[in-house]
Amino acid sequence: xxxEQRIADIIRxxxxxxxxxxxxxxxSGQRRKKLQVMAEPLDRSPMTVDHCADISRAVSALLDVExxxxxxxxxxxxxxxxxxxxxxxxxxxxxxxFDARVELHTAVDGxxxxxxxxxxxxxxxxxxxxxxxxxxxxxADIQKSKLLMTDDLIAAHQQADG
Length: 162
Known about the structure:
Layout: H1 3-17, E1 20-28, E2 33-41, H2 49-66, E3 73-78, H3 89-94, E4 99-108, E5 111-122, E6 125-130, E7 133-138, E8 142-147, H4 151-160
Parallel strand pairs: 2-3
Antiparallel strand pairs: 1-2, 4-5, 4-8, 5-6, 6-7
């Protein structure tokens, strides 16, 4: 279990009790560590500064008790943003129709990086339309992925905000 997974397991129940979905936990930095907690409201309403502050207080209290990070660190709570990372298989289904960039641990068809339109999921594979045609990428092999900022994504985000 990675440090990020351990932290996610510690904080997820409290984050969900506050009405949020835990999107991602990321620890970065060598000298001065940064713990990034990314969350969004379960009802998909816009994230506010007050939401971030509420999550920060709850997460800080839990991590002070559990102390999973040995060194000093800075806690950063944020929303995933418009060009959000895609971290769960359900994210690829939810954002089907939008453009994304996906990077794999190992090559598929001689490539590790793909950019194109998300078509959804098929079993445990992410399906994308790329310049060469349709590709199926094993979800378990995805190293990182995110939505790409496009006019379609901006328009959908503005519609969702009301």
